[in-house]
Backbone:
């Protein structure tokens, strides 16, 4: 074979090898760019997921703090109202009998005023005081320290006498209207009744009608949520 032909073939072979090297280098470069692109996308996706996770965690923390504040606020208000009830009736009776050893007319008059102003009711108060006077006259009750126990027993008798079973009729809807003065436990009683009826498989709907007392509707909404009942207002 002539030398120039061999030289030509050699050059062609070298050119082919050169083109193959270039092709492989370009392919390798493309693969590297694709790898870098995928890495950048994965980093970007991981960053988005991290931000979304942090946002969810932040929202959950905010909801938890808000719920804690609401519960603390509600418990604080409940504690305040219970303390008012305690000071309004029990506390006044405690102060009335403190240091006194006998039951006299002055003590009975003060007790009558406490009972009436504590919304025990006029007629029940008169009955309690008259029964108390009779017991004092018969010397069945002459110690002021026993007065609280007597009041507990007599008030319980009054409540028992008025107690009637709650019969749910077949009429739908069956409406229970709860009324009363402030601080007597209407809202918590409603919550207990709602929970009882829910446990019995009843469908319960609470309607907040107290728009005067501060936070009354909010309190009922909290109890309704805990009992799993819808609240309208």
Residues:
């Amino acid at each position: 074979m002539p030398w120039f032909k061999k030289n030509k073939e050699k050059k062609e072979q070298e050119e082919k090898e050169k083109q193959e090297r270039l092709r492989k280098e370009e392919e390798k470069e493309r693969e590297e760019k694709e790898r870098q692109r995928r890495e950048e996308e994965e980093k970007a996706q991981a960053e988005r997921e991290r931000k979304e996770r942090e946002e969810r965690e932040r929202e959950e923390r905010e909801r938890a703090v808000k719920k804690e504040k609401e519960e603390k606020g509600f418990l604080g208000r409940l504690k305040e109202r219970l303390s008012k009830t305690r000071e309004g009736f029990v506390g006044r009776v405690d102060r009335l009998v403190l240091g006194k050893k006998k039951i006299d007319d002055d003590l009975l008059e003060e007790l009558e005023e406490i009972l009436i102003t504590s919304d025990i009711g006029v007629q029940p108060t008169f009955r309690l005081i008259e029964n108390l006077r009779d017991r004092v006259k018969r010397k069945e009750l002459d110690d002021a320290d026993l007065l609280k126990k007597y009041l507990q027993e007599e008030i319980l008798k009054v409540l028992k006498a008025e107690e009637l079973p709650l019969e749910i009729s077949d009429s739908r809807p069956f409406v229970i209207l709860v009324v009363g003065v402030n601080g007597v436990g209407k809202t918590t009683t409603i919550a207990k009744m709602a929970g009882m009826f829910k446990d019995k498989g009843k469908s319960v709907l609470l309607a907040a009608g107290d728009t005067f007392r501060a936070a009354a509707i909010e309190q009922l909404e909290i109890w309704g949520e805990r009992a799993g009942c819808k609240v309208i207002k």
